[in-house]
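Posting here for the record, re: guanosine-5'-diphosphate.
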Amino acid sequence: AAEEGFDVEDIEGAIEAAGHGPLPVLAVVGRPNVGKSTLVNRIIGRREAVVEDKPGVTRDRVTYEAEWAGRRFKLVDTGGWEQDVLGIDASVAAQAEYAIEAADAVVFVVDAKVGATDTDEAVVRLLRKAGKPVVLCANKVDGMSGEADASYLWALGLGEPHPVSALHGRGTGDMLDAVLEALPEAPAQTFGTAIGGPRRIALIGRPNVGKSSLLNKVANEDRVVVNEVAGTTRDPVDELIELGGVTWKFVDTAGIRKRVHLQQGADYYASLRTAAAVEKAEVAVILIDASETISIQDQRIVTMAVEAGRAIVLAFNKWDTLDEERRYYLEREIETELAQVAWAPRVNVSARTGRHMEKLVPAIETALEGWEARVPTGRLNAFLGELVAAHPHPVRGGKQPRILFGTQAGTKPPRFVLFSSGFIEHGYRRFVERRLREEFTFEGTPIHISVRVRE
Ligand code: GDP
Ligand code: GDP
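Prediction output follows.
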């Protein structure tokens, strides 16, 4: 029924828009200089890319949300890759491999003016092996005369080359139409195997925080059940580990154990790896070295997991090395530097001594419970009614915007839509979120709140 001036279609539309599950992932791969970044910027709109360009953070951002023809998806930008010490083939292959692993579909960009190179051929082999849907982008076709160049790329055996000028926008619409056809509605990696299978954990954190030590600790003390081999020629990527009587899947453990050290682009490589692991997981256990000052890199990893909408546990490692003074400063740092995840369960562990390992599983379970929680509409509205009565929105311009009602549109993570009589200020939204968390114990999960204003 129509409520408080909203019509039914409005309400249903808002709930559907807010309730979308995790988005499918599209990776853009290819050699350096073929135009990947230009293409990504064109797809997401240059504005967002520029906004994210904080000094020193420029190339760490690897995933963006994008939309085409009303469908939303995540875009993994591999344009930040630079040739490293291993040479161009190795670096492009490694980069592409990670991106492909995390993706539901791939746009493979080739410079049509140059034609297919040996490196391109190497990427094609990776794409074949991965078996993911591929859209071939023949870039730098700025005019009609370039179309012939594009047609040579049929020879790659990836189907129709889509002639595109990422720079001018020519052909990008047609190519994106093809992308949407190739892209599944929901990410297969996340939900395809979810039902009944083990819960998926991404163990993430910057280099040297102790990820591989922790993994070894939990895998040794408890039985390693199986090593799953993905494909025949690859390292095991996911590991099943029994903890607290439950089997968990630690995703992307090869990335932790392999410890590839590259000089150039190493941070970027780590970011891509982290993004890939987070995409595949339901819960991110973020490891932080408690003996060192919390860094921007730690915060970026936290942000990545929050933005991906995963359940989150913070594990402060190397607790065995902390003296009283460090413990004091750590608490202050957590308050200021990790305020965005003040709601995340926290464990103070030592991968070396095994301290508090047994607290990890309960924290993970708590986070997953919050992540999947659903608040019945009746209870939500009783809570909102009381909240609004006790703490009304401040009056603005003689009017008092009011939250009229709300509903939970989705879970994993929880997503809410609130319907209001006017614009709800940021501060008030934050206040509502805080109270929602308190009332319904959304521990360990990001929550999304969107507000629909009555026209
Ligand atoms: P990436 O290394 O693959 O991310 O490549 P970039 O996006 O940085 O592009 C490399 C260079 O190619 C830049 O100078 C771009 O301006 C140029 N470029 C990208 N797309 C096009 C295009 O469609 N046409 C032309 N003529 N140049 C392009
Ligand atoms: P990763 O790069 O995150 O996988 O980190 P590693 O597991 O390789 O650990 C980096 C270094 O920190 C190694 O020298 C470890 O021995 C050390 N380390 C890891 N966990 C602990 C811990 O709990 N206490 C102490 N004192 N050292 C640790």
